[in-house]
Amino acid sequence: MVVDKDRLTLGVLIVALAAFMIGCTAHAQPSKTETTLANVAKDLVIPVEAEHKKNPVPDTAEVVEQGRLVFVQSCAGCHGTDGRGGTDLGRNMYPPADGHDLTSRAALE
Asked: Domain-by-domain residue ranges, the chain?
């Protein structure tokens, strides 16, 4: 009977997770639940005092090249290789990445 109880518990968890994931999509407008979860996750990951800290990474050609490689591998798919957001993927996400020009002065602030 213990095995059946474990299977039932696992089944209930899978159904609950599936029901929750239905509300999390990549459509034009996220659900209220998805927006709330994203904001909570952001607030947990980025400490408030981070805004006032000085960048500890030195401004050298080697560091800039490493940053460029990370951008190409992790960011360019949505923001474009030029940082202006002109990709199909970027235009079709919410919020759209093509509305966020990473080369603008506002992006630096």
From this structure: 1-50, 57-109
